[in-house]
Each structure stands twice: as C-alpha cells, then as structure tokens.
C-alpha cells in the first residue's frame, strides 16, 4: 500500500483518497491505475491543478441559437477574432468545471480507469487552452482554430469511455442496488453530457464558420431553413440500414408532415435524436414480430408545426414499456439490451453503431433537445407500443443550460 500523495507530490485533485489500493482482480485494472498515476506524475503540475480550480470558479456565459445564427451570418475577420477570444476564455472555464467534477464523483467512480482517462483528456485540453497566447490577430485566430479542432477530436470518445467507467463501477457494486436510485451519478452525468454538448457546439460552430463555400442557408452548424421531414427521412433510413444489418430486415417507417416546412435548427442534433428514437422503435417492433406470421407494423413519424414548438412524434407497436420501467429509460445505468462495451477494447479508434447501445441514447437525446429549449417525453401503452414526443423550440431565444 503506497500513499499516493507521496508519489504525486500532493496532487489531491487527481486522487481524492489519501491511499490507493491495488487489490484489483487481474492485471488490467492494476496496470491502468499505475499508468494513470505515472501519467499524472509526469503530466500535471501542481500549478496546473491550482489553475483549474481558479478557472472552475469563474462564471460561464451562455449563448442562444438565435445569437449564434446572427453572429455567424457575417463571418468576417473581426467576428472570427471576437469569437476566438471569447472561446479561449469560455472553453477554459467550462472544461475546468468538468475536470473538477470528475475529481469528486460518488461511489469511487473517479478512480475507475476509464474515468481517469476522461479526466486526463479534460486536463490536457485545459492546459492547451491556457498555454495558448492571447489572440491578437488572424494568424493567432487560425492557429487557435486548429487547436480547438484537435481538442474536439481528443474528446470524440468521451461518451463511450464514461459509459465504460460506469460499467466498471457497476461490476464492483452490490447487484441488489437499484441503479436508477443512484441519483448523484445520474445528476452528474446529466450535467457532464449537457456541458459536453455545449462545448462541442461552440467549437464546431466556430470551426465551420471558416468554410469558404458554405451551402445555402447554412451558418456554421445551424441550417436557417432546415426541413424536419427531410432530416427525419435521412435519420430513419440510417436506422433502418442498421436494423437490416442486425436482423436481416426492418419494419417500414412512414413520415407525415409538410416537407416544405422549415425552421432554424442544428440538423446534426435533430438527426441524432430521431435516429435514436427510430432505432429503438425498429428494435422493439422487429423483436416483437420476429417469430410472428403477421407483417411487422410500420413506425409512424408525425411532424407538427406549432407556434412555440416543432413537435415530432415517433410511434411504434413494439409492445410498449411496463409503467414501472418508464422512470428507468432516462437513466444512464439502465438498458434492456446486452452491453456492447468491452473494457479491453480500444475506444480510441471509433465506435461501431449497434441497434442496442449502452443505454445512453434516450437520456442523451433528451439533453440535446433541452440544449436549445426543447424536451423529449415518452408515453407507453404496455402490450401495444410507445410514443416518443420530441419538442424542439422554434423561437431560438433560450440560453444554453449551463451546468
């Protein structure tokens, strides 16, 4: 038993407990912790950790979809410079806050190897942002843009890696514990992933404004005349392709709505949400009717244009969810499917999309909806099917939620 503080020179931030036990089953976890301790010793100075805590106390600044759209509609050098100067400070604050939170997670989650890896990514990114000199001209701005592009890539696999960390936690917990009751972990993950959505939106928006030939009506990540019917069609086709790959066939998807109706939104966000809802519905219907002589009923998508919201309803006849199971579907520790994550797999290369993921699709889709003032609700009829209501605010005035 080695006191970790003597190894790390008092970096309590990195390992909250004063000692670390190496009583792990197998050499994999043992090696991961030793590597993490070695990396921490080599990489993160005491002054950096103190800097993280200083910046983590600063106030975040939220922006609205409307502001992003109006500001980005004229990507002249002056605006790009202002944007870069804002991001240099804002990203450091947001990343510092998440790094601090990764320090103090309940139930020992902070010490799980996968979570240590995520924390290292956040500390590396904070260090990159703080080491970058003040942005004074367009050369500085271009270099800064390349750096934040690299930060975005570094964090590509945060979601599956954090999911792996939660899985590592679950393996060591009493199986009698009801996971949806672990409120602190769910609240942390909601804050953590909402912040991640915001960070990636801000970086992606700034980077895309450098496109010399943007498509018509596109401002960074935002499409000012996005057709929800068109996005829903593309997302449904992608989901059906995965269903066909996994099961050999897929139920039909029928979409009802005005294809000419448009409103300003982020197509990538909507695609992700509809894809997840349709994928869940396809799996439920396919598995319910797999051994039946009946033809599998179609998934129905209805797009409604309201004054405040655009609402997209995804309806299936996949048998529904028991009422007792409804509170679980938006938790991060619940999935009805076999978990595809493997702690021995290399998460750095990319992730293979499967019909049933690691139980994060619905809670993260709800966060994407809420990011711009919308929401996601599920209503189920056990024995029949499920309706998902995706509400998207069409006003664009709501500020980012800042956890």
UniProtKB/TrEMBL annotation:
<keyword id="KW-0256">Endoplasmic reticulum</keyword>
<dbReference type="Pfam" id="PF02518">
    <property type="entry name" value="HATPase_c"/>
</dbReference>
<dbReference type="GO" id="GO:0004740">
    <property type="term" value="F:pyruvate dehydrogenase (acetyl-transferring) kinase activity"/>
</dbReference>
<feature type="domain" description="Histidine kinase">
    <location>
        <begin position="270"/>
        <end position="396"/>
    </location>
</feature>
<keyword id="KW-0808">Transferase</keyword>
<keyword id="KW-0547">Nucleotide-binding</keyword>
<dbReference type="InterPro" id="IPR039028">
    <property type="entry name" value="BCKD/PDK"/>
</dbReference>
<keyword id="KW-0418">Kinase</keyword>
<dbReference type="GO" id="GO:0010906">
    <property type="term" value="P:regulation of glucose metabolic process"/>
</dbReference>
<keyword id="KW-0067">ATP-binding</keyword>
<dbReference type="InterPro" id="IPR018955">
    <property type="entry name" value="BCDHK/PDK_N"/>
</dbReference>
<dbReference type="InterPro" id="IPR005467">
    <property type="entry name" value="His_kinase_dom"/>
</dbReference>
<dbReference type="Pfam" id="PF10436">
    <property type="entry name" value="BCDHK_Adom3"/>
</dbReference>
<keyword id="KW-0496">Mitochondrion</keyword>
<dbReference type="InterPro" id="IPR036890">
    <property type="entry name" value="HATPase_C_sf"/>
</dbReference>
<dbReference type="GO" id="GO:0005789">
    <property type="term" value="C:endoplasmic reticulum membrane"/>
</dbReference>
<dbReference type="InterPro" id="IPR036784">
    <property type="entry name" value="AK/P_DHK_N_sf"/>
</dbReference>
<dbReference type="GO" id="GO:0005759">
    <property type="term" value="C:mitochondrial matrix"/>
</dbReference>
<protein>
    <recommendedName>
        <fullName>Protein-serine/threonine kinase</fullName>
        <ecNumber>2.7.11.-</ecNumber>
    </recommendedName>
</protein>
<comment type="similarity">
    <text>Belongs to the PDK/BCKDK protein kinase family.</text>
</comment>
<dbReference type="InterPro" id="IPR003594">
    <property type="entry name" value="HATPase_dom"/>
</dbReference>
<dbReference type="InterPro" id="IPR004358">
    <property type="entry name" value="Sig_transdc_His_kin-like_C"/>
</dbReference>
<dbReference type="GO" id="GO:0005524">
    <property type="term" value="F:ATP binding"/>
</dbReference>
């Amino acid at each position: 038993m080695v006191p970790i503080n003597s190894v790390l020179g008092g970096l309590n931030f990195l390992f909250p407990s004063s000692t670390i036990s190496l009583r792990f089953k197998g050499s994999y976890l043992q090696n991961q912790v030793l590597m993490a301790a070695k990396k921490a010793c080599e990489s993160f100075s005491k002054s950096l950790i103190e800097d993280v805590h200083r910046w983590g106390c600063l106030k975040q600044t939220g922006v609205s979809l409307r502001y992003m759209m109006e500001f980005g509609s004229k990507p002249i050098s002056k605006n790009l410079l202002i944007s870069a100067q804002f991001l240099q400070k804002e990203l450091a604050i947001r990343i510092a806050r998440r790094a601090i939170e990764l320090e103090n997670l309940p139930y020992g989650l902070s010490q799980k190897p996968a979570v240590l890896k995520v924390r290292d990514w956040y500390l590396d990114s904070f260090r990159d942002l703080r080491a970058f000199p003040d942005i004074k001209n367009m050369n500085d701005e271009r270099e800064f843009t390349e750096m934040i592009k690299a930060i975005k890539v570094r964090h590509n696999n945060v979601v599956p890696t954090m999911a792996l960390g939660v899985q590592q936690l679950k393996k060591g917990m009493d199986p009698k514990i009801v996971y949806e009751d672990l409120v602190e972990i769910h609240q942390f993950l909601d804050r953590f992933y909402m912040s991640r959505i915001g960070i990636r939106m801000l970086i992606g928006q700034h980077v895309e404004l450098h496109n010399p030939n943007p498509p018509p009506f596109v401002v960074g990540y935002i499409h000012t005349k996005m057709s929800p019917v068109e996005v829903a069609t593309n997302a449904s086709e992608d989901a059906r392709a995965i269903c066909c790959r996994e099961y050999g066939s897929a139920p039909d998807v029928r979409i009802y709505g005005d294809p000419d109706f448009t409103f300003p939104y982020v197509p990538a966000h909507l695609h992700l949400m509809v894809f997840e809802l349709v994928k869940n519905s396809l799996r439920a219907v396919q598995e319910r009717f797999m051994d039946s002589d009946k033809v599998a009923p179609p998934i129905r998508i209805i797009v409604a244009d309201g004054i405040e919201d655009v609402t997209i309803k995804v309806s299936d006849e996949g048998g529904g969810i028991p009422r007792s199971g409804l509170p679980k579907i938006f938790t991060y520790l619940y999935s009805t499917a076999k978990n595809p994550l493997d702690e021995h797999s290399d998460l750095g290369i990319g992730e293979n999309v499967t019909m049933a993921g690691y139980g994060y699709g619905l809670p993260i889709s709800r966060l994407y909806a809420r990011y711009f003032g919308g929401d996601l609700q599920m209503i189920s009829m056990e024995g029949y099917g499920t309706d998902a209501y995706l509400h998207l605010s069409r006003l664009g005035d709501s500020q980012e939620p800042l956890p």
